[in-house]
Amino acid sequence: VKHFIEDSGRGFRKVVASPEPKKIVQLKTIKELVEKKEIVICCGGGGIPVIKEKGKWKGVEAVIDKDKASQLLANSLNIKEMIILTDVEFVYSNFNKKNQKKIRKISVKELKEMLEKGEFGKGSMKPKIEACIKFIESGGKKAVITSLEKLADAVKGKTGTKITK
Length: 165
Description:
It is built from 5 helices and 10 strands, in the order ββαββαββββααβαβ. It is α/β, with parallel strands linked by helices. The chain has 2 domains: 1-79, no CATH class; 80-165, Carbamate kinase, CATH 3.40.1160. A hairpin with a 2-residue loop joins strand 3 and strand 4. The chain is globular. The mean pLDDT is 92.
């Protein structure tokens, strides 16, 4: 049975499973390229979902969340700082409401409390927040969420939402 849902006024899209990423299949190759100072582009769109069946990798009909795949990759490479890009410069409390407020710096504990209150949009900011929390709880030191346009400033520590332990 195929399921389709309306996609925020943009038409319809097919609904498929979205499992948690468990492993970065090409981690060894990615690590070797990173160590050689090569530019590596991976986990875009979350990567290609596969399962191992009878000793061989097989593609499956699913979507892997790009933020959670990026978190898994960063932790697997023992990266200490991670930046997640989105379409806004900061994470906001009360997003798109009259009392919305920029969050410049926040702890994992505070973020978890906001998550429990349903503060972040399910398909937009929530997976980014969850990925940052897991990144830090799995050994990362700092995560930043910002926009592509502000990436250079975020790298310098001038903007974006900084998330720490």
